[in-house]
């Protein structure tokens, strides 16, 4: 999922915002945080999670592997451990292709409207 343009200016995101970005429950984000050490939000006041863009990218990778590719958590952990850079590159590519597809669908709708 693409981050909204205005949200790209923020330094920190709440767990609620992160969960909404991916269409998952906050509890799932907390669970992934426990399972994947790369997801390590800062804590404000000791309890309130503050996710950075890097945390969100790590969540995006987990989301891609688990939700889109259907991998188990154990499989996703192993793949991220063995080939973190490859997972990151694949996730970025898939995300960009989704954006391009969305733009093409919008263009097609506009063209269909004109004809």
Brief account:
It contains five helices and two strands, in the order H-H-E-E-H-H-H. The chain is mainly alpha-helical. Strands 1-2 form a two-stranded antiparallel ribbon.
List the helices and strands and how they pair.
Blueprint lengths: L14 H8 L3 H10 L6 E3 L3 E3 L2 H16 L4 H10 L1 H31 L1
Antiparallel strand pairs: 1-2
Describe this structure in words.
It is a single chain. This protein has helices spanning 15-22, 26-35, 53-68, 73-82, 84-114; strands spanning 42-44, 48-50. The chain has 115 residues and is mostly helical. It has one domain: Multidrug-efflux Transporter Regulator, Chain: A, Domain 2, CATH 1.10.1660. The protein has a two-stranded antiparallel ribbon with strand order 1-2. Helix 1 packs across helix 2. The longest helix is centred in the last third of the chain and has 31 residues, at 84-114. The protein is globular and about 55 Å long. Residues 1-6 have low confidence and may be disordered. Residues 12-82 form the HTH merR-type domain.
Oligomer: single chain
Largest sheet, spatial ordering of strands: 1-2
The amount of helix comes to: 55-70%
Mean of pLDDT: 88
Q: Which secondary-structure class do the elements indicate?
A: mainly alpha
Number of distinct beta strands = 2
**Helix and strand sequence:** HHEEHHH
Q: What does the main sheet amount to?
A: 2 strands, antiparallel
* Percentage beta strand: 5-15%
